[in-house]
Amino acid sequence: MNSQELRRSLRLKWLTYYHHNRPWIDKLGIWVNAGGQRRPSAGFMLGTLATLEPDLASLLPLVVDLSNSPDHIIAALGLNINPVEALKALEREQELLPSSRQELLPGPGQVEISLPAVAPTHEDDACSGVGDRENDRPRP
Questions:
Q1: pLDDT band at residue 36 using 50, 70 and 90 as cut-offs
Q2: How far is residue 22's CA from residue 24's CA, in Å, rounded to a whole number?
Q3: What string of H, E and C letters represents the secondary structure of the chain?
Q4: CB atoms < 10 A from the CB of 131, how many?
Q5: Which of 116, 9, 101, 1 is nearest to 53 (CA)?
Q6: At what angle do helices 42-52 and 3-25 cross, to 10 degrees?
Q7: Contact at 8 Å (CB) between 80 and 37?
Q8: Residue 79's closest CA among 3, 8, 1?
Q9: What is the rounded distance in angstroms from the CA atom of residue 133 to the CA atom of residue 120?
Q10: pTM of the entire structure?
Q11: Hey, how many other C-beta atoms are within 10 angstroms of the C-beta on 79?
């Protein structure tokens, strides 16, 4: 992934994350005014992005060796943006796109996490294994 693709990916992932979690993020006392932009603190953003983008997580040790200023790192990644204004711009851009094009931000109902609905049985809880340790042969 080249640097421009990484920046684009990080911006979209950050804005998507902010969009879905805005009610509680807005209430946190992590907001700063950096370079004229109102945004969450750089530390919060970097921590969030490191979990959302594996490529960034692998690059952060090198990046931090080059600059240990979270604000400089956020600026270098092109993320010194006000997320509220950036989301409004994305929504306007989305309105201009033909309806056949994919949405820039997935809707809340479009991202699903499903867990298996199978309750563990007594057999699962026992977890005794499948082999007979004394003879290394399967149990009947």
A1: confident
A2: 6
A3: CCHHHHHHHHHHHHHHHHHHHHHHHCCCCCEEEECCEEEECHHHHHHHHHHHCHHHHHHHHHHHHHCCCHHHHHHHCCCCCCHHHHHHHHHHHHHHCCCCCCCCCCCHHHCCCCCCCCCCCHHHHHCCCCEECCCCEECC
A4: 11
A5: 9
A6: 110
A7: yes
A8: 8
A9: 24
A10: 0.64
A11: 22
- Residue 126 is encoded by which pair of tokens? 């026992």
C-alpha distances (whole Å) from 75 to each of 11, 23, 43, 45 are: 12, 25, 12, 11
Q: pLDDT at residue 132 above 80? A: no
Alpha carbon distance 83, 11 (integer Å): 10
Write down how long the chain is.
140
